[in-house]
Design brief:
With about 150 residues, the protein is an alpha+beta fold. The protein has a 7-stranded mixed β-sheet, with helices on both faces. The longest helix has 15 residues. It is globular and about 40 Å long.
Length: about 150
């Protein structure tokens, strides 16, 4: 991946295609704090692309019964973090949810993870927690965050 020229103006957010799978799996595998994965059966999957490089992805599942778009994943290539890519992906996923009449909800472990600040800064609020959500992970409380759109 080329990281020398991070021209933020040339980032495109677009729908995922099966050709993006390897790049998304590579990005998901960069996490060392907990597992990331791509669910190809999600209702909406978006990728961030710079030139021909995939630099991030995110997806939502739509739960019609309670008008919720569950944010299953949002991850940016480690070379592109703190460059606005996550915010752009999040905004586009929120547009998908809004167009379907949903609010966005997610769970996030652990409760002290630095990305929590990212979501709070983007208008999310903590709407709950579960101190036994992740079996076998002592002391790892899941926070639930949501945003009404």
């Amino acid at each position: 991946m080329k990281t020398k020229n991070k021209d933020k103006n040339n980032i495109v957010i677009r729908a995922y295609t099966s050709n993006d799978l390897d790049a998304c799996q590579r990005i998901a595998g960069q996490s060392t704090d907990y597992a990331h994965a791509l669910d190809e059966n999600a209702d909406a999957i978006l990728v961030a692309e710079h030139g021909k490089d995939i630099i991030g992805f995110g997806f939502i599942q739509i739960w019609d019964w309670n008008q919720t778009a569950w944010l299953g994943e949002l991850i940016v290539d480690k070379e592109w973090r703190n460059a606005g890519v996550g915010g752009r992906l999040l905004s586009h996923l929120e547009d998908e949810a809004r167009n379907r009449g949903c609010r966005v909800t997610m769970d996030h472990p652990p409760s002290d993870h630095p990305v929590i600040t990212f979501y709070l800064t983007n208008g999310y609020r903590i709407c709950g927690y579960n101190d036994n959500f992740y079996p076998g992970e002592q002391g790892s409380t899941a926070l639930f965050l949501c945003k009404d759109l």
